[in-house]
Structures are given as C-alpha cells and as structure tokens.
Amino acid sequence: MDIDFDGKVYLITGGASGIGAAVVHYLARHHGCAVIADINDEAGNALVAQYPQRVRYRNTDVTQLAQLEAACELAETTFGGLDGAVNSAGIGSLGTVADMPVDEWHKVINVDLHGVFYACRASIPLLRKRGGGNIVNIASLSGVRADYGFAAYNAAKAGVINLSRTIALDHAHEHIRATAVCPGYIATPLTAAAGSVDAIHNDWLQRIPLQREGTAEEVAQLIVFLLSPASSYITGTEIVIDGGLGSSNNQPNIPGIFAAL
Ligand SMILES: NC(=O)c1ccc[n+]([C@@H]2O[C@H](COP(=O)([O-])OP(=O)(O)OC[C@H]3O[C@@H](n4cnc5c(N)ncnc54)[C@H](O)[C@@H]3O)[C@@H](O)[C@H]2O)c1
Predict the structure, then answer these.
(1) Residue 59 forms beta bridges with which residues?
(2) Each residue of 48-70: b (16+ CB within 10 Å) or e?
(3) CB atoms within 10 A of CB 147
(4) CA 256 to ligand 1 centroid distance, Å
(5) Residue 261, helix vs strand vs coil
(6) Which of 37, 122, 185, 250 could anchor a disulfide with 60, C-beta 3.0 to 4.6 Å?
(7) How much is the pTM?
(8) Shortest-distance atom of ligand 1 to CA 157
(9) Residue 64 — pLDDT band, cuts 50, 70, 90?
(10) What is the pLDDT of residues 179-212, one digit of tens each?
(11) What is the pLDDT of residue 205?
(12) What pLDDT is stored for residue 207 in this prediction?
C-alpha cells in the first residue's frame, strides 16, 4: 500500500516506539511530517536523525496538557500546522480491582485515557485552523472485551473507544474525523515481556485464528489508511486488528471436539 502524504503533518504520541514509531516511519517515507510526543528521548531523537527534514521530537508526558500543547505548537512553528493526531502512547499494568494499588489505577488511567483526551484537546484547535483533520486513537481489543487481571487498562481502553466516538459526533461538522484502532497481540516492546514467556506466547497463538502475532507495521498500515482520504467515509467507530483473536465467543470448538472423539 502506497499513500502519499504530500507534506501533511501529524502529532504522534508514543511515536518513539512500537506502533507509533511504525507510523512515523511510514509518514516520513511517504512525504508526510511527524512531531513525536514521547518520553523516550533516545528513541525519539534517533528517528529525527533518520528523517531530519520530516520528523521532530519533543519530550512530552501525555499526562500533562501543557506539554501536548507545546508539541502541537512545535508542529505549527516547524511544519506550518497540523492535519491529524495518532495517539499511541500507552502503558500496561496487571492488577484486579480488589488488589491493585489505587495509585497504579490512577497512573494507568492518566496515561491511557487522560493522555488521549489531552492530546485530542491540544490538537483540535489546530485541526480547525486547517479546516479539518483526522484523529486516530490507539485503543485495544482489551477495550472491546476484558482480560484477566488488567482492570485499569481494560477500563481506560474502553474509555478511549467511546471518547473517539464522541469526538467524531461533536466535530464532524468541522470536518474532523475520529476513530479508535483496537489491536490484539502485536509484537512490540509493550508485549515483549509477556510474549517471551513460552506458555503465554503459545497460548496466545493457539487463540489467534491466523496463528501468529501481528507486527507494528501491519497496524501502521491500518492507521495510515484511516489518516488518508481513502477512508473518507469512516468516522466514529472502532476497528479491530487482531488476526481474529476477538472473533470467538469462547464457546468450545464443538465440531473439533467431536472429530477428535
Ligand atoms: N502491542 C500490543 O499488542 C498492543 C495491543 C493493543 C493495544 N496496544 C496499544 O498500542 C499503543 C502503542 O503500544 P506499543 O505496543 O507500540 O508499545 P510501546 O511500548 O512500543 O510504545 C508505547 C510508547 O508510549 C510511550 N509512553 C509511555 N508513557 C508515556 C507518557 N506518559 N507520555 C508520553 N509517551 C509515553 C513510550 O515511551 C513508548 O514509546 C498503546 O496505547 C498500547 O496500549 C498495543
């Protein structure tokens, strides 16, 4: 897939790593520009060094609205404006409602839900100046259905999906589209620790009809499609990209069990 971004400018939170970084690579290689808003200075600056004409990095904690406003300002002063935002910054955390430290709950909700709200809040005034734009929020399959022991993450990601719908409703008349992308098991630094445990990795693959994890580049292809005019009639919805992981309702494979008897 080749989409030419023709100088269009995007804020990419979490753009230093994983899915966000794959979007930055795609944009930079297809004539787009990106401002990375992340806290990983080393990885962010390495991307700037790779694409000095098209990428900027600003140390930005997405839990701080003022820092996101400064990142958007950088897009305006460097590249002349903003055409969209990909909000990919996120963290995971294990814990049940009964047992997780309350501080941990707040930390995850702050980054994964408030961070998306702040990034959208900072971006929308600039999109208005352009006469429209595009927001792609990275939620998760974990926002569509729940995981064992991921209470805060599940709640935050479900919030991101409905936040994306409400942005689509409220700003459609300003030609701003908003969608939520919901990945399943994607090989990135976020899943590296769990995925390196054979028992977890193999259990995952056995539940995925396509029988493999996805790549950040595969998710980036969906995101850039959503940013582009090729998806001009898509807004206010969530799109799952999971190799089929979420397609089962968890009933037994009855024909499979009969066949094995
Ligand atoms: N990898 C998966 O399987 C998967 C599945 C579903 C959803 N997601 C979501 O995709 C998004 C990207 O995840 P990834 O897999 O690329 O992980 P990743 O860890 O490679 O990238 C996440 C990025 O977010 C940045 N970040 C974390 N906290 C931040 C903060 N407070 N302020 C600014 N930046 C911050 C990190 O520095 C990192 O660069 C996340 O929102 C994640 O929840 C990932």
Answers:
(1) 38
(2) beebeebbbbbbbbbbeeebbbe
(3) 14
(4) 37
(5) coil
(6) 37
(7) 0.98
(8) 43
(9) very high
(10) 999 999 999 999 999 999 999 999 999 999 999 9
(11) 97
(12) 95
> Which residues lie with the beta carbon below 6 Å from any ligand 1 atom?
13-14, 16-20, 38-40, 60-63, 88-91, 111, 138, 140, 183, 185-186, 188-191
Ligand 1 centre to CA of 116 (Å) is 12
For ligand 1, mutation pick of 24, 35, 38 (most atoms within 8 Å of CB): 38
The DSSP secondary structure of 6-33, one letter per residue, reads TT-EEEEETTTSHHHHHHHHHHHHTT-E
- Sorted by where each begins, the domain ranges of the chain are 9-187+214-244
Q: Give residue 47's pLDDT band: very low, low, confident or very high (50, 70, 90).
A: very high
Q: Which ligand 1 atom sits closest to the C-alpha of 214? A: 3
Token couple for 175: 């030609």
Closest to 213 in 3D by CA, of 13, 14, 19, 26: 19
- pLDDT score recorded for residue 1: 82
To the nearest 5 percent, what fractions of the chain are helix, strand and coil? 50, 15, 30
The answer to whether residue 26 is catalytic is no
| Residue 51: strand, helix, or coil | coil
Task: For residue 115, give both structure tokens.
Answer: 């961070």
Spell out a b/e string for 13-28, using b for 16 or more CB atoms within 10 Å of the CB, else e.
Answer: bbbbbbbbbbbbbbbb
Minimal-distance CA residue to ligand 1 atom 40:
90
CA 53 – ligand 1 centroid, Å: 25
Assign domain 9-187+214-244 to a CATH class. alpha beta
